[in-house]
Amino acid sequence: MKKILIINSSYRKKNTFTVLQNIRRILLNHGYDIEIINLKDYEVSPCYGCEYCIYKNKCNIDDDMEFLMKKLEECDGIVIGTPVYINNMSGNLKTFLDRTCRWFHRPVLEGKPVMLVATTAGSGLKNTFRSLEEGLVQWGVDIVSEVGRTISNLDKEIEKKEILPFIKHLNTDGMSYSVTMKQITTYQVQRALANNIFEVDKNYWKEKCWIDKIYYRPKKVGVIGKVTGSLLFNILVKNIKPVDKKL
Prior knowledge:
Structural class: alpha/beta
Largest sheet: 5 strands, parallel
Helix content: 40-55%
CATH class of the largest domain: Alpha Beta
CATH topology of the largest domain: Rossmann fold
Mean pLDDT: 93
Distance between the termini: 41 Å
Radius of gyration: 18 Å
Strand order of the largest sheet: 2-1-3-4-5
Oligomer: single chain
Order of helices and strands: EHEHHEHHEHEHHHH
Number of strands: 5
Shape: globular
CATH superfamily of the largest domain: Flavodoxin domain
């Protein structure tokens, strides 16, 4: 049975939580094992920017973050919900994402499907989704669904078409997923950094057999993506200067 992790980043169990519960019920009917995590119930401290996690592959902050990251590693699909605050995601969700920075260097969630959920009393859905996508693409995940609700349609029933791409990805292991140009370009940045900056990253990418690939799953990349990605990587790897830096 495939496991789905639902993350609720609202401090209240109201609008966002209600939509997530409705999605949970649909997914349960499809036979998935579902777990909901309310971020407010866990201690997640701000990132110090110390780079300790990059070198040691674990954070030196004693809180619940390592536990939560392990949950993400062990699941098969992820649903992330947030209310819109100041035209963006909630503060505790942003703090949570900041703490996963080592996954930019050494992705562990590559290829997992993600569904984004956001609710707002006014505007901001588009910007919130865009901001989440900018961050989550660095995890190497596939963002396959977006479910947005405003104050005027909070009671609107979740439509099958809104979550069908997520279910399809789960059931087919992403066989029909099309890699985006954003994913390809982000991958080239990550690959060039792994090649030139941190030895621990380079070793990880070599072990994963990614260091010479155009993307995690090269068969998913079209001709234009392959040419563009290759050119970008060659430019980056020539201009990013190697460093001898140890913690």
